[in-house]
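Cross-check.
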Amino acid sequence: MTDVARPIRPLPELLEALRAHGLRQGTDPGPMVAADPLPTGWPSLDAALRSGGWPRGALALLDAPTGGGATSLALGSLAACQADGGLVAWLDPFGRFDPATAARLGVELEWLLVVRPADPAEAVELAGWLARSRLIDLLVLDLADAPPPRGLNRLADLLLRAGGTGLLLAGSAGREAAGRVAGIRVALARSAWLAVGEDLVGQRVSATVTRHRWALAGGQAELDLWFGEGRRIDPLLRTAAVPREIQPAVAQQPALRVISA
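Predicted model, tokenized:
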């Protein structure tokens, strides 16, 4: 798990613990291909996908430049999947996963499996192992800016057969190649910054479904993606942005401002 102070446990043992947790929440670890799609975390994106969310068995590429919101979207989808009773994992060969940000955006760290492979090739291999286990509903594979390793096609096939869903984060070096493998491709483009007072708290992103193997592509959605503090920043801003001399009775919380990108 993400708590490094805990003793290291074998991956099968961790998966069995996750399985027991999922069964307590009513999750069936059996075949899931015909099951309902997984929520993305944004109803507007669920609608734009025209499949009601991320389809079971899909490998989806979140196509965005650095800082363009792909990681925030992936974390929001993990949180939504957990809230729906699902089990999730993050494969992190480059050590980019930030548990503090994930927790602020709603991810339950206690029930998130974080795997840190030695390199992208091992990450793909372990993602395939998780897919075959049929215990993980949604996994995120963060390839950073590395070229897609061999075996990505096989991972897509494994997910399709087992019914798990994968979200792929890829940089400019491998985005096109990864996009050819992924059954779904969602392009993200920043349209505005979101601010409260003088502080930037997020970005507004236009999401376009440019490829969809199981539904009609072309759907669009506008997403508000929050930075690490997310919506939970509001109580802090209320006290930080209001001068002390103003009485609480007349103090007002700063309004959200939309600034053109």
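The domain at 11-260 is CATH 3.40.50.300 (Rossmann fold). The helical segments are 11-24, 43-49, 70-83, 99-104, 120-133, 152-162, 175-181, 234-241. Passed to J.P. for a second look.
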